[in-house]
Amino acid sequence: MIRLSAGTAACLGLAGNMMDAYPTTAYLLSGKRCLMSCSFCPQGVGGKEALNRLGRISWPEYAWVDVKKALKQAKNAGIKRVCLQSVRHEDGIETLLDQVKLLKTELSIPLSLSAWVRDKVEAQILFAAGVERMSISIDVINAEAFRKIKGGLQQKRLDLLLNCAEMFPNRMSTHLICGLGETEYEALSMIDKLNRASVTVALFAFVPLRGTDLENAEPPALDSYRRIQAGYYLLRNKDAVFSDFKFTKRSLSSYGLMRSELAEILSSGEAFETSGCPGCNRPYYNERPGRTIYNYHRPLSMDEIETALRDLRLENYSPNGGSR
After folding, report:
1. What is the CATH number of the domain that holds 112?
2. How many other CB atoms are there within 10 angstroms of residue 17's CB atom?
3. pTM of the full predicted structure?
4. Which of 78, 161, 275, 303 has an alpha carbon within 20 to 30 A of 152's alpha carbon?
5. Phi, psi of 276 (to 5 degrees)
């Protein structure tokens, strides 16, 4: 048995529910109870919520035979990539390795993997088995918050990610969750470091979930999240450099660009779309339909672009900005 996101199941014809938006990546979830105890996740050993949830998405279970049959038609369903996500297994990567090999016999599209790997050797084994891209999730940006929320040392995971990025250039990704105690300076400094190492960053907004230790915490302020999204877009497209960014105590005040330049670069709205592996749109992973959208799963309308630019709240913006 394997779990699929509800949207993936509907997109592949395994569930009859109608969706407001369909994923362009098929998301699979390996494992039941995670060995980790991340305070934001119901999958952790301390989670009181049902185990069929990750993020705010439900993950019903299906037989492998049905999933494999459906994946053969994935391209026809508009699927551009398969992403195998995994809890931390008791048997390390053995289960994952079997699943990767099983998937690769059925797929004609790229396979991404987001999993707990212990070292470069395990990463190398999984890449050799057919993984095209791999994510080692950092999640929590502030090092002290990482220790409290995820446990362990952030630097150890970061070193592994960067070492793998050197060994497997342009094939590594990570997840960063905004709204877990970091400043905008810390977020964009981390993004810059990862971007320079050619690590693809998937940005998430923290979602308080029932049954987790952080169920009563607040999601990030939208204006702050928009400024981080815009900064990441400028950095990854080489439209700005981090050393030119200016900060107040907690907020970004300038990207080192003229206002007209900034408006022109961000005018497509792409900065506010879902970031991550190619073909990944994650519909409503951070928000409910009809509510404020943190990551747009599709191109923005002109009205949405104007709203997103206003959300940056750079009314007093100047190229000189403030000081950190």
Report:
1. 3.20.20.70
2. 8
3. 0.93
4. 275
5. 140, -150
Q: What's the CA gap between 103 and 138, in Å, rounded? A: 26
Taking Cα atoms as reference points, which of 171, 120, 121, 160 lies closest to residue 137? 160
- Boundaries of domain holding 71: 1-135
Give the burial class of 277: count Cβ atoms within 10 A of its Cβ; 0-12 exposed, 13-18 middle, 19 or more buried: buried
pLDDT in tens, 291-300: 889 999 999 9
pLDDT in tens, 71-96: 988 888 899 999 999 988 888 899 99
| Rounded-to-integer distance, Cα 324 and Cα 284, Å | 34
Distance CA 88, CA 266 (A): 38
CA of 51: how far to CAs of 47, 138, 246, in Å? 8, 22, 42
Residue 13 lies in a domain: yes
Residue 252: its H or E element: strand 252-254
Paired tokens of 114: 């987001």
Has residue 281 been placed in a domain? Answer: no
- Burial class for 313, CB neighbours closer than 10 Å (0-12, 13-18, 19+): middle
Q: How many domains does the chain have?
A: 1
CA–chain centroid gap for 98, Å, is 24
Q: Which two tokens stand for residue 287?
A: 């928000």
What's the N-to-C CA distance of the chain in angstroms? 51
- Residue 16, SS3 per DSSP: coil
- Here the tokens at position 120 are 């470069």
- Residue 124 CB coordination number (10 Å): 14
Say if 220 falls within a structural domain. Answer: no
- DSSP-derived secondary structure letter, 8: H
CB neighbours of residue 160 within 10 Å: 18
Please report how many Cα atoms fall inside a 13 Å half-sphere around the Cα of residue 16, on the Cβ side: 0
Concatenated DSSP letters of 48-79: -S-TTEETTEE--EE-HHHHHHHHTTTGGGT-
